[in-house]
Amino acid sequence: MNQINVSEVSEFHLLGLTPVKEVQLSLFFLFALFYSFVLPGNIFIILTIYLDHHLASPMYFFLANLSFLDICYCSVISPKMLADFLRPHKKISYGGCMAQLFFLHFLGAAEMFLLIAMACDRYVAICKPLQYFHLMSRNVCCMLVGVSWTGGFIHAIILVMLAHQLHFCGSNVLDNFFCDIHQVIRVACTDTHRVEALTFINNGLVILSSFILLLTSYGILLLKLKTSKTLERSKATSTCVTHIVVILVMFTPAIFLYTRPSEPLSIDKVVAVFHTVIFPLLNPMIYTMRNKEIKSSMKRLIEKYGPQVIL
């Protein structure tokens, strides 16, 4: 009788970012400080959009959802990473590893698809301004968000199914600070060529196709705005440029990590830190810093509710 999907490994050992204890403590305080300041900032963005009726447009609805996705995405990795800095032995169960892999790719892909939805929103706002609120109704916006989450789920469940097919009987040491598909493939003791190929195709389709589609769409919009004579041209151009900055910040490390062969490079961990911890929390901040309306709303919210809003 053939047995499949049987794993003799019940847990994985993580090597973390560095073996030096002093550096680990320094990184713990650095990331804890960053997390404690930037995370409330993202929550404040969501509260501002929710409480201020001046920000009831589809663009801010998508921005609030982006902030929520980024908070969830960072929470998959950051809490355990911070705890592991203080532990001599860094472990994660097999089930925990699969869960971390799933939610990392589920939320990451959902965010990529949400950026496509935001690009559609900008296209309608710039090219069909008179029909904007009709075409981008709340139902349509909710549908686009739902499609983004569904697409992320399908992408992630495929990766988990591929990882679950692997057989682990030897090394259970993952050379990283979190559990991801490439690290899991490297320690499997069965032939991984088919899984590697399917993983590469799955990641490549989601990441590269989304990246090319987004840059092409915003390039077309910028060309259209260049020939436009409307009074809102400057504001629309600034918004498009901000979206392009976020796209580059988000996709560049993802392309580096997931659209190349799985052989490890020395810089992989550094890129992974920026991709999973730093950049996601900074994305909504980039939108906010270049948006006068949301900054004014934040100021009004603080003046109206005082310190209790921040607390």
From TrEMBL:
| Record's keyword terms, sorted | Cell membrane, G-protein coupled receptor, Membrane, Olfaction, Receptor, Sensory transduction, Transducer, Transmembrane, Transmembrane helix
Give the matching SUPFAM superfamilies. Family A G protein-coupled receptor-like
What cellular-component terms does GO give this entry? plasma membrane
Q: What membrane topology was assigned to this protein in its record?
A: Multi-pass membrane protein
Cite the Pfam families for this sequence: 7tm_4 (PF13853)
Keyword tRNA processing on this protein? no
| Residue ranges of domain G-protein coupled receptors family 1 profile in the record | 41-287
Location(s) in or outside the cell? Cell membrane; Membrane
Instruction: List all membrane-crossing ranges.
Output: 27-51, 58-78, 98-119, 140-163, 205-225, 237-258, 270-289
Listed GO MF terms: G protein-coupled receptor activity; olfactory receptor activity
Q: Which PROSITE patterns match?
A: G_PROTEIN_RECEP_F1_1 (PS00237), G_PROTEIN_RECEP_F1_2 (PS50262)
Which PANTHER family does UniProt cross-reference here? Answer: OLFACTORY RECEPTOR
* UniProt family annotation: Belongs to the G-protein coupled receptor 1 family.
Protein name according to UniProt: Olfactory receptor
